Amino acid sequence: MTPIRFSRFAAVLAALTLTLALGFAGPAEAQNRTPFTVQDLVSLRSFSLQDVTSDGRWAVGTVGSREDRWDTDHRRQGDPTYVAPSVVEVMLLDTDSGAMRPILEGKVQARGLTWSPDGRTLAFFLLRDGIPSLHLWEREPERLREIEPRTAMPISTGSSILWLPDGSGLVIEFRAEDWHARASGLFRELTEGPIIVLDGSDDFLAWDALRNLGALTIPARVDLPGGAVTPLASDEGDHSALSLVGNGTGVAAVRRYPLKTVYTAQGGAEFDLAVLPLEGGDPDILREQGESRPSVTWNEEGTRFAWAARGDVFLAAPGAERDSIDLTSAWRAAQVDAGADTTGLRFSAQQFSPDGSQLLLQSTRGWWLQDVSGGDPTLIFPFEADEELRPQRSVTAWSPDGRSLYATTAERNRWERGLLRLAIETGQIDTLVLDSGLYSGWRLLGDSGDRFLYQHSDGDLPNEWYIADSGFMETRQLTEMNPWIHERTLTRSELVTYRDVDGKEQHGILYYPVNYEEGQRYPLVAEVYETFFNNGFNANMNMFANAGWFGFRPSVTLEEGFPGEGWLKGVTSGINALIDRGLVDPDRLGVQGGSYGGYATALLVTQTSRFASAINISGKVNMVSFYGDSPRLGVRNITAPERGQDRLGCSLWECRQKYLEHSAIMDADRITTPLMLITGELDHNVPARQSMEMFYAMRRLGKEVVWVNYANGGHSPPNTMSETEDYWARILGWHSRWFNAAGEEESVAATADGAGGN
Asked: What's the predicted TM-score (pTM) here?
């Protein structure tokens, strides 16, 4: 068969022709709609909730789409002075009426939207050319004004906003006056030279030192409306997890102290927990400096905090009464003495009750209540014994009257998701909502907790925001961000259960072609990564479905030390199950993935010839050359194979053979599947030179290979609308080309068989 030459024009033409031809085919309901296109993909709008007033009436959020994030300068990755473009509309949502409107003109780069305690004033930052300025928007009467802090220190681009309880001021984070010059200077040294020297005796890798510099801030109180500034720290430091405590008299902060660059799971930095007084002065050290990052839970007033250590829960208060109380160890010891089964009796501290008198604890056995004054913990919600089959549950709210807990629930083997209410005194469990839909973003509103604000999708459409009474007797949709989407041909999803080669039950998500007719077999494109379960609107799958193909997201089990086997065992088994159902054409199978999924794709096609086409998007192919590459990520590419996602479990010198076995380029001679490589030249996560290696290897071996490198692209290669159109034209065109070639070969073979039989 004569090879098909593939140009950009041919790719675009093939993809557009395929989409138009197949998007209208099939059932009548699909013919009355228009295909889902690349333009639809980039213009999908979503409402991101930022904050809600204390009475639950007014929500503020941002509305944006993919096309609002074009033109990122990937050359600046790792530059702490750079803020990538991302413009949004700032929207006010009335949860009573559902009315939504913008409160600022046009699209802006806004961050930190936070309501005042009385719900009348919104504080936020506006960024212009990457420089943040502090603004207040008053709801009644409507007024926008800029607050100019009276200091030479610039505001940190990553600053949070904390309102003082009486609304008289804010706590935000600043940079030291010379920080910008130091940070930009170090970035230029590392990227422009002209001479760059890295010394192995330095405590930090140079890019780690730059990250450490980028984390330094000075928290400060800003009085309103005048803008007077009171620094809460005498010098810049790495502050995180800021929260008002002590009834608004101080700010709790976890402080990090970098020591050196390390390659082990722990070490390299120490931490403490301190309260910074709002009036300035010496901090109150709540947890002394040590290797473990403090993780504590505060009561509503910030007058007590709890934490877990070695399976027990402790309680303390800032200030002079800081001596900690051990709440659980005596009870746990008594259980041991009594000969009870203590398996699963290691506690974590979840949250305080609204009045602060009780703590919710969790163990693998269930949820417990612990009185803060002492006594034994009480099991109020026992979990099922089988951890693998029990539903996934998480407490999302405690009713203001303290009588009920609300918890999300999701089954592990079917799409059944929703919200439960647990009556603490009686133990009664009410199922408020439970169905195949997707729910997220739960917020219990108002002082009485009589309403829920939440996101919902049927599993195939984009999320929208809804409101319901606390008993879910009445629900109402508040937003409709993309009304036009109901006029598009969209896929429908199905949860697929199958067994991999080892007999382990796996789940995958199957997305149907928009022109699907029962009894026919269709091409399939598998998008691989690790484990998939929940559905939800998926733009990629809608592109495949509108091309007339199945999309499939199969799950795999990745064994440490031998992860490369997992995709062959899991992906092919899932596809076989679909072939056995008569859904999929076994001769027209495609596979692709991005990042780790691209790496999986490359490994998979070295082990099987099942696929007609394959695409590796920003995935590595050589574990040896990748080890220690991407300097802007610090030690990430070393720690990932040793103890992270790559799961090799050892260093290059401890098990060099594993690195070779998990490098697709070493088995490039075994690849029979046509492979497309897509990269961004400015990708600092997985450098484009990884794909360059594979391209030249396959070309040397006489294999079918195409390398598409977007000169201004990053880890997600397209960076403009035209590049995104080109990107999807190439993906659809590549699979289409080889699906068609497989169909031609099948037709020729069938003709030959028929001729031989006559």
From this structure: 0.93
